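Dear support,

I submitted the protein below through the web form. The confirmation email said the job was done, but the results page showed an empty box. After a refresh the structure appeared. I'm attaching both so you can tell me whether what I see now is the final result or a partial one.
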Amino acid sequence: MKLTDSITDLKGIGPRKAEAFGKLGLFSMHDVLYHFPRKYRDYSKTSCIMGAKHGDYVALELKLKSDPKLARVRRGLDITTARAFDQSGEINLTWYNQPYRMKAVVAGECVYACGRVDRMHGVKMINPSIYRELPGILPVYPVCAGLSQKLLRDTVKAVLEGCSEGIEESLPASMRQKYGLIGLYDALRGLHFPGNMEEIKAARQRLAFEDTLMFSLTLSMMQYSLPKREQPLKLEGTMSSFIKLLPFEPTNAQLKAMEEIRRNLAGERLMNRLLQGDVGSGKTAVALYAMYAAMKNGKQAALMAPTEILAAQHYGTLCEIFGAENVAYLKGGMKKAEREAELARIADGTAKAITGTHALLQGDVEFYNLGMVITDEQHRFGVKQRATIGAKGSAADVLIMSATPIPRTLAMILYGDLSVSCIDELPPGRKPVATRLVPEHKRQDMYKFIEEQAKAGQQAYIVCPLVEGSDSMDDVQSAVELYEELKKRLSVPVGLLHGQMSNAAKEKAAEAFRRGETGVLVATTVIEVGVDVPNATIMAIENADRFGLAQLHQLRGRVGRGDKRSYCFLLSGDSSEAAQQRLSTLVKTNSGFEIAETDLMMRGPGEFLGKKQHGISEFAAASLAMDISVMKEAKDAAEEILSDRQAMEEASPLIHRAWSRLEAMEGEIARN
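What the results page shows now:
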């Protein structure tokens, strides 16, 4: 088998299963091999019933006391139970909607039961897997409806065995030796089927090193092509005259960022700067200075937004600051005559400041003299779109705004010479959001509090990770199921909003919440950007352990926008100490930068390396790096390759791959 072969070439993978794999983006053998586990369950040794704590995932060596019994509680809910024991006590094995478990075990049989211990009402193990011998360390993969963990494990194993000869080593032997790295095949095998935790660590280190090395090589090659400015900009007095236009006094952090941009624009090379700041820190005002400086030099400035709602907000702000006669606004669904009039103003230079969504990227948009490109909420834009608008101004300065702070340590490694500005100070008057971890037994109290607040005129979001329930993720709350439950339980109007709804239905649900007709809105992360309701004072997040801290911080930023006290409640399906410690970071601080640093230390750099933010789709394995030093070593190795002829010759396949990747991503990475 070849890595490029379709997964349908594997025995047992028919059209229906292939469709399920396709939902995860898995089509070829290579895709399956690089679909990495998100965590592991260590079932290499047994625990005893007495010693297992609530929420622990353990392996128990048990003897069945009774045959399994099936109870049909109601339509759609079957519960299968079996009583078992060891030397320390007894336990109930409990399966939900798995009636086939009736035949899995019999009274008197000795088995290994692996799963989560629940001590809420007696002692039970929820949906345990049954083995005749200890399974060892099991990988836990991201899955979707139609795919089980067992099917994924079996598929990965088949690919690893069938394609072993096609997995070619990609790092020079001298480099592996210098940095203490294992071979590629051993890394892939160790990551999917580790014999011990050390193998996982070595595999992560190897794959993260290679991904970061390729990332650094690609970035370095891009930096070489950063163009020089055609003529210097005249910037004297621009900051002081711009500040007079603002209806407020900028913070010191905003002034510092403006000065950094001013120095950049005064340099001989075009600006390529990342402007990051916390939710509500005032990035837009700083971006407006960049637009103002370009406009003062006879250039046009374009400000892209990820949603129509934000683009409309920007349009209003630009008109207030620069005057409506100087501003153009392009949006989807404009009437032909209206759009053509705006296009003409952009093409002849009448419009100096232009804002819009993806409509700015369409082929019929011609700029007169585009000199400044600004993208808002960068993580909501693909780099392909940024590149497209950048191409419309061949000598344009670029400013990328992101409300997902990237830790300074990581930004230095990722971006190298790319300038980074941080607004780490909030405007005076913004109240911090009180954040609490809510244990399972307090869930009903939380809903009662939300109901009382809604009756008093406040509003609440409740965010779920899934739209609908899934057999493969039975411990994860879905928006549709929770909506149905709360609609019956709460005495206030409850709304539903998720990404699978039609645009009209989404807008109707969002508008009802904005107008206060809905007291509680059950939603997925679709509300992360764009739904701005100052009257919303509560954010409750189900299965918060399944979100990154940066995303949780973004969701929390949806509340606390008015003058009333606001709350964020985090409910976790993972009661382990590590999960609770990670989530407690949000309880301790409202600073996005502190949260980002913690996420980097606890989860590695994957949160900041995804395609959404950097467009490097093949660097998924870097999310597995738990040690920032691996990335520093890879960055050093990239610099060594590019500065030493012998090293360059040894690593020629790597350099060829980097160039090939750059060419393949032509139009996908903004080379400004």
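Response: this is the final, complete result; the empty box was a page-load delay. The first helix runs from residue 15 to 23.
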